[in-house]
Amino acid sequence: MATYWQMLIVLVLCIAVEGQRSNVALWPPKCCLEDQFTMTYRGVVGDMYLGDSFGYSNYAHMVFDFENQMSAMDGFVKTFDGITYKYRTITDYHKESVWTISNNSCTWAKQEGNMGTTCIGENNGETVFYGSFNYMGYIPTYTWRTTMWMENQKGFFYISVTEDECLPVTLNFNGYNDQVVPIPETVFQGGNFYNYTSGIHPDDLGRYFDVPYYCPPAPPPDIQKHTDRKEDDMFAPARALMNIKQMIRRARMK
User: Fold this and answer.
1) How do strand 168-177 and strand 185-198 relate by DSSP bridges?
2) What is the DSSP string of 129-144?
3) Could you tell me which of 178, 195, 194, 176 has the C-alpha nearest to residue 186?
4) CA 128 to CA 117: how far, in whole Å?
5) How many CA atoms lie within 13 A of 214 on its CB side?
6) What is the distance between the alpha carbons of residues 64 and 100, in angstroms, rounded to a whole number?
7) Residue 161, pLDDT above cutoff 90
8) Which residues lie below 8 Å from residue 195, measured CB to CB, with a gap of 6+?
9) pLDDT above 70 coverage of the chain, percent
């Protein structure tokens, strides 16, 4: 297990250091994706608390519909001790809801905040330019950093996009869970995106976003909306992946 942790920490630190090596002098121009797109994610997540470690790999097909403020994932995680969890998630930001379907059961949880936009580089105070590096040694990319305050997860997310087409290629997180006492739990995440495809066929909308009949209904959204931060960035994939981390945490606690 220590070998996985060493690989994970090296992955996160190498990407961060490489991004600092070739900083550009000026703030890169804002870039945006389409309002509807799909892509695949593969990465690893690890927790460390009082010397004990736990980690898992995550594979997910991700779907984003910014027109209707919804996202969905279908994938599986495999823990480093050999347990596999298959899952499907549906997030409806209008209803402030996320449903997680796993092992023939469905749970509901509140989805904080809003979906944001498909753009990066707004210079809004939350998201800042972090640097540039060549992904895989030859693909020029820009890296952006934003703060993450979500369901007790606090820290920094880093997302890298290609300079020419704004396509996401890497996503990393370094932070902690402050709900764990007496010492916060350290959290690492690192992964890559690929198979980016623009648009969603209308016939696939129901397959991705229809909530199964056996899932709990969503309660009425809060009248008081969250307005403490302006989420006009491209970090909806990060929030979606953190929901999977919470699913694994709940499964381990049973």
Assistant:
1) antiparallel
2) EEEEEEETTTEEEEEE
3) 176
4) 16
5) 7
6) 16
7) yes
8) 38, 39, 40
9) 69
C-alpha distance from residue 173 to each of 13, 24, 45, 135, 220 (Å): 10, 22, 9, 17, 32
The reported pTM is 0.80
Ramachandran angles phi, psi of 70, nearest 5°: -140, 155
Helix locations, the chain, DSSP H: 2-21, 205-209, 236-253
Q: Are 242 and 155 in contact (CB under 8 A)?
A: no
Closest of 183, 114, 179 to residue 152, by C-alpha:
179
Q: Give the whole-angstrom CA distance, residue 160 versus residue 140.
A: 10
Element (H or E) spanning 108, and its range?
strand 105-110
Q: Which amino acid belongs to residue 248?
A: I
The span from the CA of 232 to the CA of 39, in Å, is 20
Look over the chain and give the mean of its residue pLDDT values, rounded to a whole number: 78
Question: Sign of the C-alpha dihedral, residues 33, 35, 40, 45?
Answer: positive
How many Cβ atoms are within 10 Å of 181's Cβ, its own excluded? 7
